[in-house]
Write a structure and sequence with these properties.
11 strands; 5 helices; alpha+beta; 9-stranded antiparallel β-sheet; Jelly Rolls; two-stranded antiparallel ribbon
């Protein structure tokens, strides 16, 4: 279930907006220059689909977004709980620590969620927009937008990524990150 929650950057306990309404989400994100859309595959994509099957299922969408944004590199990223010890559920996924730090990129952040869920936190104009994306959601965030990401304690996330250059995902981390003060993906799901 797609969700947008907006909070002041200095008061994460204050929820200004919390909605599952796709039209409201689209409108709120457009106010900060972020594009949100929903895609449907030409045919059903099995949960265990390999990268090639995913790329083929969304070929026309990928071609459209690539042409529109000048994206030269398209790939698939996955986060799964396989590297977590089931006897230590409090253990975090190795990549989670990095993704939970505030950063920005010189390239746009364009992601289409194929399976699972992930939350993109966008810090813009004194507010944090926690955008919980699920399968079918396309999020397009302008370059240099401060953000962080969480796929949860037991991640299940597969997405198509778009880049203008090979090193487009090179991150510049902020020294005084506010990310730890905000609800995680798991927290947002628990209150849905």
């Amino acid at each position: 279930m797609t969700l947008l929650q907006i909070m002041p950057e200095d008061a994460p306990e204050t929820v200004r907006v919390r909605t599952h309404d796709l039209d409201v989400i689209r409108e709120e994100l457009l106010r900060i220059g972020v594009r949100f859309a929903r895609w449907h595959a030409a045919r059903r994509v099995p949960d265990d689909a390999d990268d090639s099957a995913i790329m083929n299922a969304y070929r026309s969408h990928i071609a459209h977004v690539s042409a529109e944004g000048g994206y030269q590199v398209v790939d698939i990223t996955r986060m799964t709980p396989t590297s977590i010890d089931p006897d230590s559920p409090q253990q975090r996924h190795p990549a989670r620590e990095t993704f939970l730090k505030e950063r920005f990129h010189d390239d746009d952040l364009v992601r289409f969620v194929v399976a699972g869920a992930g939350c993109f936190y966008l810090r813009v104009a004194g507010q944090v927009h926690a955008m919980l994306c699920t399968a079918g959601d396309l999020l397009s965030v302008p370059s240099r937008t401060v953000h962080w990401f969480d796929a949860g304690a037991r991640p299940s996330y597969t997405a198509i990524r778009f880049f203008q250059e090979d090193n487009g995902c090179a991150a510049r981390f902020l020294p005084d990150s506010i990310a730890a003060r905000f609800p995680t993906l798991d927290d947002l799901l628990a209150t849905s």
